[in-house]
Amino acid sequence: MGGVSTTEAAERAESTDAADATTDATTNAADATTDATTDATEPVEIAPRSPRLPHVPKQDRSRATRQRLLAAAVACLAEHGWAGSTVSVVAERAGVSRGAAQHHFRTREDLFTAAVEYVAEERSTALRALFPEGAADRREVVAALVDLYTGPLFRAALHLWVAASNEEQLRPRVTELEARVGRETHRIAVELLAADESRPGVRETVQGLLDMSRGLGLANLLTNDGGRRERVVAQWGVLLDEALG
């Protein structure tokens, strides 16, 4: 037999490679079709939806932000005083941005006067809730009134008063605020003590009780003498029984 030329051998090799490539492509296509058909017939697992969080109306969110700012303002004022209580410090403590704080309260004075008034109203509500039946044992009422002036609210209000004594812009607002809070506290005291202010001297006696309570609050800023305070409260209970009948 005659030998195969180099050219013929190359042509045969190329034909074989082409045939193998065609076979591989056909096999791969068939496998892909089979896989696709299998995937289409198998059930598809769908991940469960995450539970939808309840929708909170924008107005409620705004009210909650405002209350957080007011509570944070009182806490900052009680802890850091007027000089250390900026809008930025309050916003950070409340967990909101400075812009959000200024959306609710345009100025620093707006924020802090509103804060003290808000917490004073909350405390008044809480004071009434302690005596749902109205007039109660006078010693207990005196103790509750004294507590109003020995907590963080009184400390915050005191810082606000001191600042108002030096800042003309703040003074009229704090003076008006103090008058409103004072009238409401006096009214609650009259109700809980069952005091008849039509009798001579009764109004002055109730006011004297509130002034005494404020004085104990001032003393408590430096020393917390609970024993002495309890004795004073007990004595005022006796005095009120004698004076109010």
Briefly say what this structure is.
This protein is mainly alpha-helical. The protein has helices at residues 6-41, 58-80, 87-94, 98-104, 108-130, 138-148, 152-166, 171-193, 202-220, 226-244.
Describe the structure.
This protein has about 240 residues and is mostly helical. About 75% of the residues lie in helices and about 0% in strands. The chain contains ten helices and no strands. The protein has helices at about 5-40, 60-80, 85-95, 100-105, 110-130, 140-150, 150-165, 170-195, 200-220, 225-245. The radius of gyration is 39 Å and the shape is elongated. The N and C termini lie far apart (about 145 Å).
How many helices does DSSP assign?
10
- Radius of gyration, taken over Cα atoms and rounded to an integer in Å: 39 Å
Tell me the series of helices and strands, N- to C-terminal.
HHHHHHHHHH
Which percent bin holds the helix content? over 70%
N-end to C-end Cα span:
145 Å
Mean pLDDT: 79
Multimerization status: single chain
Give the tally of β-strands: 0
Give the overall shape. elongated
